[in-house]
Design goal:
Elements lengths: L1 H8 L3 H20 L2 H19 L7 H47 L2 H6 L2 H43 L1 H8 L1 H11 L1 H27 L1 H6 L3 H53 L5 H42 L17 E11 L2 E11 L4 E5 L6 H8 L7 E6 L2 E2 L5 H5 L2 E4 L10 H6 L7 H10 L3 H6 L17 H15 L3 E5 L7 H15 L3 E5 L3 H4 L4 E6 L2 E6 L1 H6 L3 H13 L5
Parallel strand pairs: 3-8, 3-9, 6-7, 7-8
Antiparallel strand pairs: 1-2, 1-4, 4-5, 9-10
The structure holds adenosine-5'-triphosphate (ATP).
Adenosine-5'-triphosphate binds next to helix 13.
Length: 581
């Protein structure tokens, strides 16, 4: 049963077990609500007996007071356990749900993120998790518990007096059926409502991410119009969804109250006919009120439970994704990177690399060149197992990288990509990301080697200056030098450089090139460079065009052929003389 609950509600094993416990406690608490009814009847019986026999009503006062207090204490204890099992367990599960989502996301190949909307993932992590917290702390356990407790209380009522039991309970199946029968309608409105809300969140996130381009293209009005349309659709959808839920739930709740009327009528008739004692009549009246209250709430919550379906599905779609796995024991015999007949496609049927074979040897600089879109960056990322290949193998030191745990593998790589990512933190910490635990002195030494030190010291608080979101307060060249400093600090045996010096001015470029050449000694270097000057000193050139290796060899060997490399070198020599009029 635990497994089934885990699957249906996207819970951990402990979460499923805790849900069972919560249902049991809610069930016990629902039954305990009948205890005060018993206490009142017990006391009333005593008073009636005393009045009939002419005894003192005060006789046994302490016993009844003690009994009432015991009921009170028992109720308190039971509700305390119910509270702990509902809320504490739910919030523990909620924390572990978020952690396991984050863990899964950490282990997913980048292909997953390529196919998913970022704002969709954000809303799953934040909004969906919160909705499920609410659902598991307030709705689901109470829903199950009410079904069981109503059954038990119903049987007890039938045992006491089947006519009164019928008068009370006939409305229950009708009210539940009315709510459950509306599921399809509520499902459809609820799903539309959630999708509308997501569309608004997407639109806001898109606007925030692209605000610079929106302004640059004077598209503010068009953007606002689009957002307003989505907001209007959301408002309409929310009202419709609430109305659809409200109509059915309120009707079902009203229907439930009809039971009180039939209880009074039936009880009154039986009482008048002498077929029911006054005490029993009183007891059934109390019991009906006690029964309908939690049931009314449950009806309200059934609708909320229907709406959670979509959120659970979205959560499950992440949790059940196949994650990248592999051995954590990785000691390659060397750090040669070998592409062995590698094919790769971001989307099925849309191949980006086709039968790519080459080796980037340890101690050598291997340059990937070729026309834009030829697959150079893709090859670099496959070398670090950011994605898994669709055909062939990528080997590091003779080991297939797809058999190595991605985080273990990445310890062997330092990377500087075109799109530098900086975090909202100090400059010091942004560089320290290269090697956790590096001392301030080591960070500063790396910054010096990457020619960052000078501009960092000019920042308002030097190395302790906070960098804005993704380094927005720094120039492109400065961002890139910080990322080079990170790579220098990491000092890994494999270096991947993707246009590493693209945003640097000539003075900085030669300074960084000098720092890089010190770092690169003895390492496996895979560099992507558009400028032929950057790759003149490479040990090996691999030309990638339309996803295939069209040439490979030393620069001088390739210059002798009249292939793409030579053509690119000549073109760049010509363009070196190009100037603005
Ligand atoms: N994340 C991605 N999802 C889908 N397609 C992608 C992705 N990244 C790249 N591509 C596509 O894969 C192909 C190769 O891209 P890649 O970036 O590897 O080429 P490149 O040779 O490095 O180009 P450039 O020199 O312009 O950076 C291109 O057609 C590109 O549109």
């Amino acid at each position: 049963m635990t497994k089934k609950l885990q699957h249906v509600f996207a819970l951990s094993e402990k979460g499923a077990k805790d849900l069972v416990k919560a249902v049991i406690w809610c069930f016990v608490c629902n039954l305990s609500l009948m205890l005060p009814v018993g206490a009142v009847l017990f006391t009333a019986q005593h008073l009636l007996d005393a009045m009939e026999t002419g005894g003192s009503p005060m006789e046994g006062f302490w016993i009844y007071t003690g009994f009432a207090l015991a009921v009170l204490v028992l109720l308190f204890v039971l509700h305390w356990f119910q509270y702990a099992s509902l809320y504490l367990a739910t919030y523990k599960e909620s924390a572990s749900r978020r952690v396991s989502l984050a863990e899964t996301l950490r282990r997913l190949p980048l292909s997953f993120f390529g196919n998913r909307d970022l704002s969709d993932l954000t809303s799953t992590m934040i909004a969906d998790c919160s909705s499920l917290d609410q659902m598991f702390s307030h709705y689901v356990p109470q829903l199950f518990a009410s079904v069981f407790s109503t059954l038990v209380i119903g049987v007890a009522m039938f045992v006491c007096d089947w006519r009164m039991a019928l008068a009370i309970l006939w409305v229950v199946p009708a009210a539940v059926l009315l709510t459950a029968g509306s599921r399809k309608i509520q499902d459809s409105f609820g799903t539309k409502n959630i999708l509308n809300k997501r569309a608004v969140a997407d639109c806001i996130q898109e606007g925030l991410e692209t605000i610079r381009d929106i302004k640059a293209c004077s598209r503010q009005d068009a953007y606002m119009e689009k957002l307003e349309k989505k907001l209007a659709a959301m408002e309409k959808g929310s009202i419709r969804s609430e109305l659809a839920t409200g109509v059915f739930v309120c009707s079902a709740q009203a229907f439930l109250r009809l039971g009180l009327a039939t209880t009074i009528l039936t009880g009154g008739a039986l009482l008048a006919a002498g077929k029911l004692s006054f005490l029993y009549f009183l007891g059934f009246l109390f019991a009906a009120a006690r029964l309908y209250d939690p049931l009314g709430l449950v009806l309200q919550n059934i609708a909320a439970t229907f709406n959670a379906k979509l959120q659970i599905e979205r959560m499950r779609s992440i949790l059940e994704q196949p994650v990248q796995k592999g051995t954590e024991e990785f000691t390659p015999k060397n750090y040669d990177i070998t592409f062995d007949h590698v094919s790769f496609a971001y989307r099925e049927g849309d191949g980006v690399l086709e039968d790519v074979s080459f080796t980037a040897k340890q101690g050598e600089v291997t340059a990937l060149i070729g026309p834009s879109g030829g697959g150079k960056s893709t090859a670099c990322k496959l070398a670090a197992r950011f994605w898994d290949v669709t055909g062939g193998k990528v080997l590091l030191g003779g080991t297939d990288v797809s058999t190595v745990d991605p985080e273990t593998l990445l310890r062997s790589y330092s990377m500087v990509f075109q799109d530098v990512v900086l975090f909202r933190d100090t400059v010091m910490e942004n560089i320290r990301l290269g090697r956790r635990g590096a001392s301030d002195e080591e960070v500063i030494a790396a910054a010096r080697a990457a020619r960052c030190d000078e501009f960092i010291r000019e920042l308002p608080r030097g190395y302790q200056t906070m960098i804005g979101e993704n380094g927005s307060t720094l120039s492109g060249g400065e961002r890139q030098r910080i990322s080079i400093a990170r790579a220098l600090l990491k000092d890994a045996p494999v270096i991947l450089l993707d246009e590493a010096t693209a945003s640097l001015d000539v003075e900085n470029e030669s300074a960084v090139q000098e720092a890089l050449s010190r770092l690169l000694a003895g390492k496996t270097v895979l560099v992507i460079a558009h400028r032929m000057r950057t790759v003149e000193a490479a040990d090996k050139i691999v030309v990638l065009s339309e996803g295939r290796v069209t040439e490979q060899g030393t620069p001088s060997e390739l210059m002798k052929q009249s292939g793409l490399f030579r053509h690119m070198v000549e073109l760049q020599r010509q363009s070196a003389g190009w100037k603005l009029k």
